[in-house]
Amino acid sequence: MEAVGTHRDGAPAKQLAREAGLPLPTAYHLLRTLTHEGYLRRENGVFLFGAAAERLGGGAATPRPGVIVDSLAHWAHVIGAPVYCALYKDGEIEMVAVADTPAAPAVREWASFRETGHAHALGQCLLGQLDERAREDHLDRHPVRPLTRYSVRDRQALLCRLRAMKRTEPVVERQEYAMGTVCAAIPITVGSAVAAMAVSLPLDQEERLLPAVEQLRCEVTTLLRSFVFSISI
């Protein structure tokens, strides 16, 4: 679903398999299932979102907020790291939910997450999913400003970083928002929603960061395939 969401005009099975990192037979099986369920449709040899996915993205099937909160709490416990979920909605970054544990507390919001998307992994992941016009509009309203000595220094440097991002790789941020903290985010695509999820860890546990965010990706993918979880709220 994430791979399909990156192609406005659709993409063939082989390309989607490559971008999702799946064997071609597995990709064909998933594509057939998603098409049968109405979440995808096939036109002229390419796959696009179907009516069921578009209903999710358009809000026709609004999920219970408790589903998101409960899922994040479960993942925070299993992964052993705080888990964050955010949307880009109506031109702004919106933190949907955060889950942590006493042993692994979430990053304190000392500077508005909404206004400092350039400095944290969630924000960079969301901005990376926007088209150029929407991205420029956001930065006009929320200018780039360094928060720490590791933060991106200016608008041009941020735009270069966003353009270089690869859909299949997590967005990693090291001490750009909060000193002593590293964070990694992944895009989440359901219908037309622009969303992301992330984990954070203390700097001295940085070696756990990529395994943790890949574990989160697997957990989210499993739940998305059950069609129970939608972040388009």
Considering the chains and any ligands shown, give keywords for the structure.
9 helices, 7 strands, disordered C terminus, five-stranded antiparallel sheet, 233 residues, globular, alpha+beta, GAF-like_dom_sf, two-stranded antiparallel sheet
In short:
With 233 residues, the chain is α+β, with helices and mostly antiparallel strands. The chain is built from nine helices and seven strands. Strand 1 and strand 2 (46-49) form a beta hairpin.
General description of the model:
The chain has helices spanning 2-5, 13-20, 24-36, 51-58, 65-79, 121-128, 132-141, 155-164, 209-225, and strands spanning 40-43, 46-49, 83-89, 92-99, 171-174, 181-188, 195-202. It is an alpha+beta fold. Strand 1 (40-43) and strand 2 form a beta hairpin. The longest helix is centred in the C-terminal third of the chain and has 17 residues, at 209-225. The chain is globular. Mean pLDDT is 86; it is low at 58-65 and 227-233. Residues 1-51 form the HTH iclR-type domain. This is Transcriptional regulator, IclR family. Residues 52-233 form the IclR-ED domain. InterPro entries: GAF-like_dom_sf, HTH_MetabolicPath_Reg, Tscrpt_reg_IclR_C, Tscrpt_reg_IclR_N, WH-like_DNA-bd_sf, WH_DNA-bd_sf.
